[in-house]
Amino acid sequence: MHTIYIALGSNLGEKEQNLIRAIKQIEKRIGQVIAQSAFIYTSPWGYESKNRFINAAIACTTQLSPEDLLLQTQLIEKKMGRTYYHKSGYEDRIIDLDILLYDDIEFNSKSLQIPHPLMCKRLFVLEPLVQIAADVVHPTQNKTILELFNEMNL
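and the corresponding structure tokens:
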């Protein structure tokens, strides 16, 4: 059994309900949710929009491989109505699921990087993640999530 951390975000429609629906789908398709952060409200990152985000983080146990995990998160996004228009990847979205950590491994393929390559630069990821994984050590930074969060808040 593997422990994974996923970031969730939504800035379209019924945002809180979108996160709740996504978490239910994760429990159905990926594994048991063992920890969940509070929902936080944030501004868009990497692009301009009038729509604020709701973000959260969850910890799950899963038997899925990293590749299968990615397929399931993308299936959940698609099933919930996520569309992809911009090549930059930054746009309003009904749901966004990002795989942050998978045990303490580093994984790199054409379609997936674990740990998530931008997680240490995004306060909207670290703020909810620190609520559920403060003592977890980032595999490539060799710092805890709390240390990374504190560095962002300087």
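(Above: one complete record from the training split.) The CA atoms of residues 25 and 76 lie 7 Å apart.
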